Amino acid sequence: MMSTLKKLLAVLLIALTAGFVAGDMAVAQDATPAPEAEPTAEPAAEPAPEVDPDGPSAEAIAAAEAAYIDPGAATRDALMAIAAAAAEDAITDGDEETTPEGAAEEAVAKFYDSILYDDYIYTTILFLVGGFLVMWMAAGFAMLEAGLVRSKNVAMQCTKNVALFSIAAIGYYIIGYNLMYPLGTWSIEGWLSGVWGYGVLEDVGVSADGADDIGYASTGSDFFFQLMFCAATASIVSGALAERIKLWPFLIFTFILTSIIYPLQASWKWGGGYLDSELGFLDFAGSTVVHSVGGWAALAGAIILGPRLGKYVDGKVHPMPGSNLTLATLGTFILWLGWFGFNGGSQLALGSVGDAADVSRIFSNTNTAAAGGAVAALILTQVLYGKVDLTMVLNGALAGLVSITAEPLTPTLGEATLIGAVGGVIVVFAVPLLDKFKIDDVVGAIPVHLFAGIWGTFAVVLTNEEATIGGQLMSIVIVGVFVFVVSLVVWGILKAVIGIRASADDEMAGLDSAELGLEAYPEFGKGSQFV
């Protein structure tokens, strides 16, 4: 054990050193020079608080907390106290490998990081939490589709949803992520990324100096969050083309959609491309970039694929009720829950009071828009048909969610409710409109994601003064034409080369038994195979 004098000298040395570090930190914290204080307001310098050999004293902790709230006033004393405490611990422990100076430096560095890099840490957490909520939407899509298709096709829909999510993860990794985020490097300025290759994460245990963007968030969290949006786009297509499309052609299209089509058009907005830089296009969380894209791809597929057997006969529409409205309702609530991550995470920051307040505002507006869509569909189906249609109510809620996605921050609660309600009305009228054109959309994905997505993108001009009618409409058209035409071409090639539609016999038997050799509800037997 060192003598008391040696301890005091060591503590004094470390505290003095920490004072210089604290001075550097104060400069980094506030680049604007502080006004000179009145001579009488400058407190006399006080020695560092005494420290407990077992750790920082209560005074040191209080000083650290004060420094976090007011770094300019309290950081120096806080760091002196923390450094002194760490040095004292090293002396008391008698660890030959840890010098008092080293212990103090490490303690100061940790405190320094905790203040300067809060934005990076909290935004990373926002992306991870938001990301796994959006991932949970994959379960919502699966349950919604499983409930709205006939029982003989339920296992196929479950298989497609698991497979498409997995394929999207791989396609986005090897091509899509860098295609979507050129980081200012373009092969064709504003239109085609110059960054090619698979995604790369930061090193294990990366330091602040080695982080890709210390002012933003970890690369892993950003990749994970953006991937979830990409996968959601493919889920939209799955439901619309259910009950008659073969598995492998669908999965090939999914790979092309998630690795090339979706990331390329997303780069035009979220990658800083032409729509963002030249047209001022605003699409907060993707009413167009995600939902309309999935809707356009589904519309192209439905046209090429044709309707289900028996859906349109002698000029009449023959309803084909889903197998399980309980599952469809569960799927809707799962999607509703996941949407808080979808829209809330798109704030892309959680390092300030303002960011936290905005995320909570986004949650509230997202929720009330869904409610507005559901209630609008509830009332309208009662008025039009004399009875409430549960499937319309479910899709009304989803349409409300899609509608608010382009701008969930700026509306008031009342405005958000009305924006969602218009989405619900759109669905009620759009579903029979598609039937008039003999476009068979099994789950109503095209009205929900395409039509309500267009409405929501345009509605941004109603609440965000930075949006322009021209910028919004031109961007809707550019994205729509690109995705629809490219999807038509891809579906056409797949149809010509390998075929995309199941045979009539397989469709009548059900794709569960025909393509998978099993059924989701085997106890129903042959009864599940009737149209």
Number of strands: 4
**Strand arrangement, major sheet:** 1-2
How would a textbook summarize the main sheet? 2 strands, antiparallel
User: Mean of the pLDDT scores?
Assistant: 86
How far apart the termini lie comes to 88 Å
Helix content: 55-70%
What fraction strand?
A: under 5%
Query: Which word captures the global form?
Result: globular
- Tell me the radius of gyration: 29 Å
**Unreliable stretches:** 1-53, 67-74
Counting H and I runs of at least 4 residues, what is the number of helices?
18
**Assembly annotation:** single chain
Question: Structural class from helices and strands?
Answer: mainly alpha
Instruction: Tell me the series of helices and strands, N- to C-terminal.
Output: HHHHHHEEHHHHEEHHHHHHHH
